């Protein structure tokens, strides 16, 4: 039984930890670099559903949509949105903003987020997961040591 515990901690918990961290990063990671609200409007043309468990998205299902983005009536350029638009938004104007020097598209309401929240939450998740794995390994090894000491001497010392 202890072997199963060690195998679980060493081979199952790391992928689960990675997916948990990816979920935290996907949910909190799109941060606005410039302050203030945008003047951009996006209209989704098509959306494709992504699987609920992915290496980049973690444990949540989400959509990748092709969006025509313009500055309130100006020339439009096609960008890709990840996660905040759904098929219900196709053909509907949605206020949007960009991150990472205009490469990533996010909802305009995301400008209210705190810019340091994603790295702090990710660091807390990773550190917490490592501590949980270490505690489980320590408990498994302590039980093993205690059983060996009882078995050798015949009594608990």
Structural notes for this entry:
With 157 residues, the chain is α+β, with helices and mostly antiparallel strands. Helices cover 41% and strands 24% of the residues. It has 2 helices and 5 strands, in the order αβββββα. The chain has helices at residues 2-28, 117-153; strands spanning 40-50, 62-70, 77-82, 93-99, 104-107. It has a 5-stranded antiparallel sheet with strand order 3-2-1-4-5, with no helix packed on it. Strand 2 (62-70) and strand 3 (77-82) form a beta hairpin. The longest helix is centred in the last third of the chain and has 37 residues, at 117-153. The radius of gyration is 23 Å and the shape is elongated. The two termini are 24 Å apart. Mean pLDDT is 76; it is low at 30-36.
- N-to-C span: 24 Å
What kind of sheet is the major sheet? 5 strands, antiparallel
Oligomer: single chain
Question: By helix and strand content, what is the structural category?
Answer: alpha+beta
Helix share bin:
40-55%
Radius of gyration: 23 Å
Lateral arrangement of strands in the main beta sheet: 3-2-1-4-5
Name the overall outline. Answer: elongated
Low-confidence stretches: 30-36
């Amino acid at each position: 039984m202890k072997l199963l515990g060690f195998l679980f901690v060493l081979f199952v918990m790391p992928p689960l930890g990675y997916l948990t961290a990816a979920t935290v990063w996907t949910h909190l990671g799109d941060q606005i670099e410039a302050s203030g609200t945008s003047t951009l409007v996006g209209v989704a043309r098509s959306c494709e559903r992504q699987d609920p468990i992915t290496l980049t998205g973690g444990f949540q299902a989400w959509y990748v949509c092709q969006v025509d983005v313009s500055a309130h009536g100006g020339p439009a350029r096609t960008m890709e949105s990840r996660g905040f638009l759904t098929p219900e938004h196709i053909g509907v104007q949605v206020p949007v903003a960009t991150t990472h020097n205009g490469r990533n598209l996010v909802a305009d309401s995301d400008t209210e987020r705190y810019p340091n929240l994603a790295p702090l939450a990710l660091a807390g998740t990773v550190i917490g997961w490592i501590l949980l794995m270490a505690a489980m390994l320590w408990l498994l090894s302590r039980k093993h040591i205690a059983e060996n000491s009882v078995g050798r001497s015949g009594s608990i010392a």
